């Protein structure tokens, strides 16, 4: 393993450790030392890869969203029939609430952003990038179906993202009231309605 590969491995280990520790203790309750210890590295190794916790957190969030985007891309790449595409997209959207750690990371980020202007600016930029990606998927779907979105694609993307995040948080906080079935039905029904899917 060369130097670059070793550094990349260290960086990924720190990101994975941060995701685990932040989900458990919150961003404010997590120190650089906590992250380094969880990853099996020193404090110095942390600062060799990141300027600070905020820097790591933004990259962690970008990686997290990147995984979801890749799933969307794969659905579009691997599906030819439009009805099959609609069904797969609705099913995927209906399951997004299941990743509780994902939800906790983004909630922690928003809480941190409320109190820290510099981080808020960076998070806002990242969220706008996320909206742009989802807007692109909405526009692509509408091109394939020949249907115009009921509202501007960007607004629809914001709505889809916001509802998914709200349902995920409600499911984590009160899984008895918002159980798997409720969360799945709400998300699939909303997605099917706004994307004008039959059935």
Automatic annotation (TrEMBL):
Name by which UniProt lists this protein: AcrR family transcriptional regulator
Residues annotated to bind DNA: 31-50
The keyword Zinc appears for this protein: no
Keywords on record: DNA-binding
All copies of domain HTH tetR-type, residue ranges: 8-68
Species for this entry: Dokdonella fugitiva
Annotated Gene3D superfamilies: Tetracycline Repressor, domain 2
PROSITE patterns xref list: HTH_TETR_2
A single MF term (Gene Ontology): transcription cis-regulatory region binding
Keyword DNA-binding: yes
């Amino acid at each position: 393993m060369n130097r670059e590969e070793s550094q990349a491995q260290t960086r990924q280990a720190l990101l994975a450790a941060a995701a685990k520790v932040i989900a458990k203790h919150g961003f404010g309750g997590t120190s650089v030392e906590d992250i380094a210890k969880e990853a099996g590295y020193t404090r110095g190794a942390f600062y060799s890869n990141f300027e600070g916790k905020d820097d790591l957190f933004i990259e962690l969030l970008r990686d997290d969203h990147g995984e979801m985007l890749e799933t969307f891309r794969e659905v579009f790449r691997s599906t030819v029939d439009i009805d099959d595409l609609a069904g797969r997209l609705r099913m995927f959207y209906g399951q997004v609430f299941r990743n509780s750690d994902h939800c906790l990371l983004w909630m922690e980020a928003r809480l941190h952003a409320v109190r820290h202007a510099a981080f808020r600016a960076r998070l806002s930029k990242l969220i706008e990038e996320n909206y742009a990606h989802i807007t692109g998927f909405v526009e692509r779907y509408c091109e394939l179906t020949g249907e115009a979105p009921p509202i501007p694609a960007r607004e629809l993307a914001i709505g889809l993202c916001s509802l998914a995040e709200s349902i995920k948080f409600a499911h984590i906080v009160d899984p008895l009231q918002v159980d798997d079935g409720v969360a799945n039905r709400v998300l699939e029904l909303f997605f099917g309605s706004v994307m004008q899917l039959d059935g």
